[in-house]
Every structure is written in C-alpha cells, then in structure tokens.
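Progress report, Aim 2. The chain analyzed during this reporting quarter is listed below.
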Amino acid sequence: MSTLTTARTGRVTLRRHRRALWTTAALLTLAMVATVVLRWWVAGSMDEARCFAGEPEACGEQLFGDWVTPQGFLGLALERSLFVLMAVPFLIGAFVAGPMVARELESGTYKLAWTQSATPARWLASKLLLAAGLAAVTATVLTAVFRFGRGPVRYHQNLSWADPGAYELMGPALGGYCLLGVAVGALVGLLVRRTVAAMATTAAVLGAVLLGFWSLRWELWPSLHASGQGSQLTGGLSGLPFDALLLRSGYVTADGRQLPYDACMQPEGETQCDPDTISWYAEYHPASHYWPVQLIETGIVLALAGLAVYAVFRVLRRHHA
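Predicted structure tokens for the chain:
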C-alpha cells in the first residue's frame, strides 16, 4: 500500500511540475544540438590532434581568433555560456525552495496531499526524489556537452581547467552543487515558508558556499614548489608546465626576507635583488591536480547536501509530526 501511495504521490508531483520538466528537456536538447553543430564547423577548419601536438599549420585560420573564425566563435560561445550554466544549481535550488515546497506550505495545498494517505515524509520525499533526479540528469548532460564543446578551444580565455566556471562544468562538481541546491532549497522552503523569500535565501546560501570554495579549493590538495637562484622570476617560471595554476610567487633574500613577485622590477630593487644572493620561489598546481581537487570538493559538497537532507526531515518531523 505504501509503495502505491509513494508512486501516486510521485505522479502527482510530476504532473504539477511537468512544464518545468519539459522546459528543461528542451533547453538541454538545444544545448546539445548547438554544441554538435559548432564542433562540426570547427572540425572542418582544424586538425585537433595535430594542432595541439604542436603543428600550427593544422590549427586552421586562427586557433582562437575573433568570433568570425570557427574556433573563435566556439570559444566565445562557451565563454559566454559559463554565466548561464553556473546559474543552474541556483535555479534548481530556487525552484525547490519556492514552487515545490514553500508555495504549497504558504497556500496550504499540502494539507490535501496529507489527507490522502500521503504522510508528510512521503510527500516531501517524492519532491526531493524528483528534484534530485532532474538535477543529476541536467548536470550530467551539461558536463558532457561542455567537455565535448571545449575540446578544440580548451586553451581559450576563461576556459582553462582551473578557471571558475569551467572547473565546475568539466567534472562532477556541477552535479554536487545541483544536489546541494535541492537539499538547501527544501530546507529553506520548510523554514521560511514564503515563496519569494525562500528562493532568495536559497540563492544566497548557495552563493556563499560557492564563493567559499572559489577561495579555498586550491588549498584542498598540496601544491608543488619550484625555486631557483637569481632575480629572473619570469624566466624561472617559464620552466613550469605551461598550463599550471600559479598560486604564489616571489623572492627570498639572503637573510630570509620574502619579497613580492614584482620587487625586483621596482627602482629600489637594484639594492635588494642581487642575483648572487637572492632566490625566487613559486607555488603552483599542475593540470594533473585537477581531479584530486575536483573529487575532494565534490565529496565535501555532497556531504553538505546529505546534512541538509537530514536537517530537512528533522525539521519536518518537529513541525509536522
């Protein structure tokens, strides 16, 4: 009986939010078609494998060029889409907080469902399962589409493996943030119980979490250290991997004082940057550190989502037991 009730509650939830589901499906299909067309256009003007193997003649008219070249247009399109794609976790969270949870509590329509053999826990679980499924499918498709489109323009401005936006969209972190949006949205919706206020609060919470990871994510994994003798920091850094993420750099004097990276370019630098007594240092992450950092961050985000789901049912039980 409980299985039938759960299935019935799920069908009601699907019908109630079918417009959002169809809109999401249409947008994902549009994104896939547009990316495939752009990749096909780029394939006609460059040999991707030979180009990135160091053969400039295989790169087409211009590797990254302006928007009139295939590569330039694809790179620009992906760069502009970052702002939209990174809004997906916020949109999912706001949708769960507002239309799915807070609106029903605010209007009182939840009482009808609860009087038709659907317990409060089952009512909320059906919503969370629907939203989590939508979030997982959306994140998976967007990640696959972005990685596919980024292939021939992966060194384009703002599309590097370490750039905010591209970093999340290339791996499971986007899915983690989408699921966190579901959990936080449900919790805020239960607590705030006002549609617009719940949506705004959810966006603020998710924004704070994302900004926190932007500031701290590269401390989640030990960075590499490079150093050398002399005041030619720029020349020394040329020995690092070309796509490395530089965290910190500077100089160390003979007496152990650390100087900023541009100290030797200043007029007073001549007196403190004697090549025979000074050394330079650099802390960086190579591209191979992408996946360890990505997986650690995703794990933390999913743990936060799990805690939020636990809090959701505790709040529901306390207020609607």
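The CA atoms of residues 20 and 272 lie 64 Å apart. The first helix runs from residue 2 to 16. These observations will guide the mutagenesis work planned for the next reporting period.
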